[in-house]
Amino acid sequence: MTDDPYSILGVSKNSTDAEIKRSYRKLARQYHPDRNPGDAAAEERFKAIQASYEKIGTAESRNEYDQNKRMEEMFSGGGRSSPFGRGFGGVDIGDIFSQFMGGRSSSRRNEANFGSKRNRREVNSKIYRGADIESGLDISLEQAMNGTELEFKHRRLKRCSKCKGSSFGSSTTCNSCNGSGVVTKGSTITVKVPPKAEHGQQLRLKGMGHEHPEGEAGDLTITLRLDAKDGRRWEDGALIQEVKIPFSKLILGGKIRISTPSGKLVQLEIPKGTKIGDRRRIQGQGYNGGSLDVEFMLEEPEELTKQQELVIKKLRDSGL
Ligand SMILES: [Zn+2]
Fold it and tell me: What distance in Å separates the CA atoms of residue 87 and residue 76, rounded to the nearest whole number?
């Protein structure tokens, strides 16, 4: 079985924190040992669900998990054509640091700076650049539609204020940064979300990534995640809304009313013989005038009345 917490929790990398929480609650209920006594498969699944939720269940832990994953991918080269062959665990921290710090900027900028005699690295026509940071930001559909300004907190490497980065790569010691020229610091910025922002849209903030002891700072890329609320999720840019239908209505057909993301009530015709998982596209009722894909689910009764139980027994006897 996969150990990817996103797939174990049935969500995607771009799911909002709230969506992850909802999916976790649903799965934890479904596979809870109280509900599946003595079922080893359910127990194993339940443990995997719990472990996954520990990894990505809060914004902080998720951020950390995502960062580590990116580092792992960066240094393992996707696993095959790795320059380090040994994988993440065996990589020397010095390698990581130089790789992390060593990103070169474009040749255009190199040319622009060519001839400046500010330091030896530039004479070698190499300009160093701090690493980029990628992060996610959850907003409501309303915030996305109207545009908004939000405070965003993240941690990044900043140039050491004591040695101004000069101890990096030199024999001078600095007890503030231990010679790395940078220290990790919290940073709070205001992020402007433009109106009609899309799910998965990326905002690039120049120079807000990791700083480099002597080069320029990397960028911060924020991926916007639109939280479409309970029962809705994004799938390849399409907004899906789950709608629970009673068994009899699936079989016999009928009408239902659903509440769309904009809060409008819309009546839908359920054709006779509708199956669980069937979908229907409603134009104009999704986000920002887009379409909404309704997915039919079975509404499971919590408790049956005596009469309903009797009728179901008759159904059973009839072979259904
Ligand atoms: Zn320092």
Answer: 5
